[in-house]
Design a protein that fits this description.
Elements: H1 4-12, E1 20-24, E2 37-38, E3 48-49, E4 53-56, E5 67-74, E6 87-90, E7 102-105, E8 109-114, E9 120-125, E10 135-136, E11 147-149, H2 157-165, E12 170-174, E13 178-184, E14 188-189, E15 201-202, H3 205-215, E16 219-226, H4 230-242, E17 247-251, H5 262-268, E18 272-276, E19 280-281, E20 287-290, E21 296-300, H6 304-322, E22 331-335, E23 346-355, E24 361-365, H7 375-379, E25 382-386, E26 398-403
Domain MoaB/Mog: 180-321
Keywords: Magnesium, Metal-binding, Molybdenum, Molybdenum cofactor biosynthesis, Transferase
Protein name: Molybdopterin molybdenumtransferase
């Protein structure tokens, strides 16, 4: 049995970033950038007005009370023009005429004379106007040639806005990790929905992993259910290898019982076992191996919360490494209730999060942490992670927290949970 840190180090050490592929930006939401994106132009691309008003050249003639002839109008989308005498009416976003360097807001002027068509002909300034007032300068958001997004960044709507503004229509993204799921257990009822047979259960691990992996950006190639014998499991492994997957995740049959055949089956298949058993709760019997044909195998215990922990704290780091993303930034919260973990084991506790009246993130472990219970998982906001060497944890101490699912965004409740007496 090895520590969690040692297990992750062995798991990630041989991994390399997957190949890249080019996608239209409109289809790249949720994908991971393969390379750093450099800006092909400055943003803004020209000096323009920050508000409706009048463009002018700041100086001695732009004092409050001075009067000016309005010689033209400049709207957004108009090409550049040379500044004339006086001032030029200008609209928000319009290019600043050459020779002008400031804009006075329309509400800080007084119209003295209009033309027959109603447009202003002569105005008076109500304030002194300084150089650069109400002007958005070229390149002040993004200079030309600047690195705007690093490789490994996930393309979200905010990135779509930025890259679209820069005129970038296609991007190189990391190929999605291809994953196969194998659920073991003769008790798992398969086929069309039907009343459960005696001694059978519905498969919840397969649907959970499929949903969690897809949300994390993986391509789930297959999800097979096999019984508790070696031959069907080896067939499913062979199917995964032939499909060219990068990762195989299996659930169940990985502990020490008579029907826990997975460790022997993997060795029979020629796999190199990286580790078997991790000092943690839940999920201690977890096994990792590398197949001769290159896919990585993570064999998780079949208990629902062991599967959830394996997915969140082993599969998620593997997917990040395959996509060229670094480790997740550490997140911490104040522990709201004392915990007494078993020494020598890393504990993963389902928890609720909320902000207290001082703006501090609070975390409380939910009741009923038994690994077979799914309802508390569905009601939780996050995981509390207690280190192997942490010992007893008093209320009020700082602890590590992690998002509930493979994605890294936290769910935070509106207030502290109700505690049943």
């Amino acid at each position: 049995m090895i520590s969690y840190r040692d297990a992750i180090e062995r798991l990630l050490a041989p991994l390399s970033v997957l190949p890249s592929e080019t996608y239209a930006l409109a289809d790249a939401t949720g994908r991971v950038l393969a390379d750093t994106v450099t800006s092909p132009l400055a943003l803004p691309s020209f000096d323009h007005a920050a508000m409706d008003g009048y463009a002018l050249k700041a100086g001695a003639s732009s004092r409050g009370g001075s009067e000016h002839h309005v010689h033209g109008s400049q709207a957004a989308g108009d090409s550049g023009q040379l500044a004339g005498a006086g001032v030029c009416e200008i609209m928000t976003g319009a290019r600043l005429p050459q020779g002008f360097d400031a804009v006075v807001a329309v509400e800080r002027t007084e119209i003295l004379q209009t033309r027959p068509d109603g447009t202003p002909q002569r105005i008076r300034l109500l304030d002194d106007i300084a150089h650069g007032r109400n002007v958005r300068r070229m390149g002040t958001d993004v200079p030309r040639g600047a690195n705007v997004q690093a490789g490994g960044a996930t393309i979200e709507p905010a990135q779509i806005m930025l890259l679209s503004a820069l005129g970038i229509a296609r991007v190189a993204v990391v190929r999605r990790p291809r994953v196969a799921i194998i659920c073991t257990g003769k008790e798992l009822q398969t086929g069309p929905p039907a009343p459960l047979s005696d001694g059978h259960i519905h498969n919840s691990n397969g649907p959970y992993l499929t949903a969690a992996l897809k949300r994390a950006g993986a391509d789930v190639v297959s999800c097979e259910t096999v019984d508790d014998t070696v031959h069907p499991y080896l067939e499913a492994l062979q199917h995964a290898v032939e499909a060219g997957v990068d990762l195989v995740i299996s659930t169940g049959a990985v502990s020490m019982g008579r029907y826990d055949f997975v460790p022997a089956a993997l060795r029979h298949f020629g796999a190199q076992v990286l580790f078997h058993k991790v000092a943690m709760r839940p999920g201690k019997p977890l096994l990792a191996a590398r197949l001769h044909a290159s896919p990585l195998v993570l064999a998780l215990p079949g208990t629902p919360m062991a599967v959830a922990v394996g997915a969140r704290f082993f599969v998620a780091p593997v997917l990040r490494a395959m996509c060229g993303q670094g480790s997740e930034p550490p997140l911490r919260a104040v522990l709201a209730s004392a915990q007494h973990p078993k020494p020598g084991l890393r504990h993963f506790l389902r928890a609720t999060l909320w902000l207290d009246d001082r703006g501090r993130l609070q975390a409380r472990a939910v009741d009923q942490q038994e690994p077979f219970r799914i309802q508390p998982f569905a009601n939780a906001d996050a995981w509390i992670v207690l280190d192997e060497q942490g010992g007893d944890c008093a209320a009020g101490m700082s602890v590590e927290v992690a998002s509930l699912e493979l994605a890294t965004s936290l769910r935070i409740s509106a207030g502290p949970p109700t505690i049943n007496p």
